[in-house]
Design a protein that fits this description.
With 139 residues, the protein is an alpha+beta fold. The chain has 2 helices and 9 strands; from the N terminus they run αββββαβββββ. The protein has helices spanning 2-19, 77-84, and strands at 23-32, 38-44, 47-54, 60-69, 87-93, 96-100, 112-118, 121-130, 135-137. It has a 5-stranded antiparallel sheet, with no helix packed on it. It has a 4-stranded mixed sheet with strand order 4-1-8-7, with no helix packed on it. β2 and β3 (47-54) form a beta hairpin. It starts with a helix and ends with a strand.
Amino acid sequence: MKKLKLIIVFSSFLFISCDMITNTTDYMVFINECSDTVVVAFTFNNKTKDTVYMNNKGTFTGFTLSDFEKGNEGIDESTFLAHANNLSIYSIKNNDTTWVNKNKYNQMDTWNKSEQNDMGILITRYELTITNDMFEKQK
């Protein structure tokens, strides 16, 4: 009987601890729904931190924005929007560069935000679907 009580207590502890947030990770993810290759460059402190290329329609990729330990709640929306403002999204076709106007992605309602608790890690994913109608020809 003592073993059964010990097993129940231990199982309860494991069940509860899986629900506790110990780490957080924030991602910025892009889905290419365009007919052309899309380039996304992320600049931080006036230096290009990372650049990704999505060559085919339906491809997706992204950046890790933050990775915190010990119960931090991750980045808030204003910090996320500051990161989003540091993006350059464009396409190059036949030596023509077509840019996405920042107004198409520097507001929270243009991003799909989702959160998931995975074994005590809170994963926040900010997702932007890039479509042909987001691009503007530069003159």
